[in-house]
Amino acid sequence: MLRNLVVKDYALIESLSVDFSKGLNVITGETGAGKSIVIDALSMVLGNRGNKSNIRLGSNKMIVQGLFDITDQPDLLEKCEAFGVTIEEGQLILTRELDEHGRNLCRANGLIITVAQLKNLGESLMDIHGQHEHQSLFQRDNHRQLLDAFGGETSRKYLEEAAFYAHKLKTLKIQIDDLETNERELEREKETLQFEMNEIEKAQLEIGEDERLEDEKRILENRERLFSNINGAYERLNGENPGQNSIMDALGLLQENFSEVTKIDSSFNSKLEQLNGVFSELEGLTFEIRKYLEDMEFNLGDLDEIEGRLALISRMKRKYGNDISEILAYAVDTNERLITLLNRDENLQSYYRDYQENEKKYISAGKHLHQLRLKSGKVLKSSLEKELRELAMEKVQVEISVDYDPQRMTARGQDVVEFLISVNPGQPPKPLGKIASGGEISRIMLSIKSIFGNMDAIETMVFDEIDTGISGRTAQVVAEKIQALSATPPNGRQIICITHLPQIAAMADQHFMVEKHTGESSVDVSFLPLDEKGKKEELARMLGGAKVTQKTWDHAQEMLELSQKIKKDKKRE
Predict the structure, then answer these.
(1) What CATH number should be reported for the domain holding residue 116?
(2) pLDDT value at 4 more than 90
(3) At what angle do helices 140-150 and 438-452 cross, to 10 degrees?
């Protein structure tokens, strides 16, 4: 539920903070006052498209922030947890900034999130319906979604089955088509794969082999300098040359000196131990250097062999991968593909059997779905006709067409679903798009919302002038239905409604009036919550237009009293 909305530098709004409550929140005002701007800003903070052209003149960015109470929405709490958003006391604060360069900055409880994540959260928070939303009723696939939603948990189960088997059939069809390609092409592919496998196997590559060979090559190419330096080091350590004092001999003499000193001063014992350790380590180093010299081989053939091997590995890398690991992985994939082609006929038969088995299961799920849709369609038809008759469409006739097409294979089954309607007696039902009246479309949308109200988990609904084209007695019925929708059990819901109908405004639990103020060089919009006196004044304006008479005042008072009585009677029910 939306608790508070903050808007800064959005279109005509410089700064605005509005507190909303549960129940019916009505927004009224003169045409062009900026009523829909608030809904547009709210839509933006829910992740819908933002337009930098809406930044208030003179500002470089706009900010919209919404405070939501999600205590009773476990699914939404799980989404927040998945996004890493910490929730305290059930509060979720969504913030969105859009600057003059079109850059978005979105936050959820202070954590930066993407626009996609913001939209994901927004879809579970509010359901916004404006005049443009009526167009969704003209889209046939939306009719199927409505009918399936009406089918409840059973419908969801069959839809999941249909989607599962449709995906398996699609995968199997790709595998079958792959193996049914041109025979010559397959033979050429087999020959190529076999050649590649033979070449890789013959190379007998080992991971890390190229690095080891590069090290050996470097040693052989620098063997003379290597021998000269190692031999020189050995001679300095061991004193092989005549007249050269070795390091080991010098250390031996130093040991004798320290040994004599310790006989006089015992504090030199530790220093003698250090010297003995150095002598021991150098003795070991001398042994290792001598062994290295003895093992060195200077076979010119070794270098040629190593260079040849590295050249082979380089060619293999150019053909099969950036390194030996990738080459060996390529070999595994190539071998699997080769086995598949060598066993083509056997695999094809296996795929055919799998396809037939999954097709039977898909068709079974599709037929169950078809029967459920027929059954749900009858109930939904009756419910829609009842709702529409209450909205002064007494002669309405609804038909929910569910056509089964055995050739149709989709993740949603094999049906084509369409809502058809006739509003005049004697005329056959036609697609909704053929209905010209905006008022009739508004009533159909409201009827659908009334039917699905108890099934919808979203706590907040927004109606942006959904009452277009409605007046008189019908307007009163619409008002009562919207109010009833806001009181949907068990705990009621929040409805935010922009309206031009006084009948709806009179039903408000909270009433806001939007005014536009034009100065010499700027325009601003205010959002004023009305008390009882203010409600009456606004109702009188809506009823009387430019001139408010005593009769208009009395009518406004009468409407407020009637709305209170209707709400009390509904509560008793």
Answers:
(1) 3.40.50.300
(2) yes
(3) 30
